[in-house]
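Hi R.,

Here's the chain you asked about this morning:
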Amino acid sequence: MNRDPSTTRQATPSAREADPAAGATAPAPRASEGSAPPRTPAVSFLCPAYRTERYLPGTIASVVAQTRTDWELVVVDNGMSDAIRDIVVAADDPRIVLVRQENAGFAGGVKAAAAVATGRCFAQLNSDDRIMPEYVERMVGLIEAHPEVAAVTCDAVVLEERTDSFRRRSFHQQHGVRRARFSDPLTLCELIDGKVIYYTAVLRREVWERVGGVDGLGDLPMWLRIVGSGYDVRTIPDRLGIYMYRDDSLSRDAASIAAFQAFQEQAYVEAAAGSGDPEVHEALARRMRRLRYFEALRRARTALLAGDAAEARTRADEAMRMRRSPRSLLVAAAVRAAPGAITRLWPVKQRVTTSGKKALAAVRGARSRTGPSQG
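And the predicted structure, written out as tokens:
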């Protein structure tokens, strides 16, 4: 892959550095005569970092704590933050590489990491997430033992930022994914129909390069291209990731939700367009109905809170036509019966819900300080 001349590659003194002005890369220090050549990392973690200074030390520490040590961590300072630079330098580990660039967004950050990574496999790692100590040993071990497999994915525990405690339900469980078996390859039907991949998966480098890596707002199109091209992707039930549930998550922002849904819809449509399998197109139809159902409910709530009762009723009716569920019936009845009262009570409900979640999480946190279950 071509190196981006606008980036600077930095690390501890044992790593090579790039000259961003010239676009050239200085050679790595030569091994002394008689010494073994540097080992190629089994996996390179691609870690874009933007405004995650308070999380990044934990992310780095979780990689450094791996029971298998032939890894590389490429941190992309996606915004030229001196604090992020200082965090990486303080780690003082030659396996950790720093790339500095102006903010290029999620995909730009991951691509910048991939451009300088040297590992045989890649794994995307968000700079606010972590991995369990046995992640590399387990995941890379599986992909090395099965040359026919292009990628291995896993489950993750969910860490509440507010209470620093683990939720009882895993990442897969929260997304309705049934217990996975390594023997079952992931299919395009499953992926379009809503099966969620935990994004910190180990993927062979050559597959990443053939499909073009990540693009846009997330990694969904890449996984659709990988599975749609016939590559073998397997999932294990082990909870080897640690997903950080943040209070300031963009997933709570209405505009971000709408943009991400449009991004998802386009990815699913493009993936299905390349398949002649009728089951894939049936899965697409189901997926689009679900996405639009939840979008209609979201718009109904947004309109109601903005005081637009007419728009709220229209969107609630739209959701009910797509799926007559208890939720859609309740929303449709509420926007007709007392929209003004709901608008006034909603902030109270949110405060009560948040307080209840805090109290429950605190109790759970006291029980889970020793760490989450791996089952």
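Confidence is low (pLDDT under 50) at residues 1-9, 11-37, 348-354.

Let me know if you need anything else.
M.
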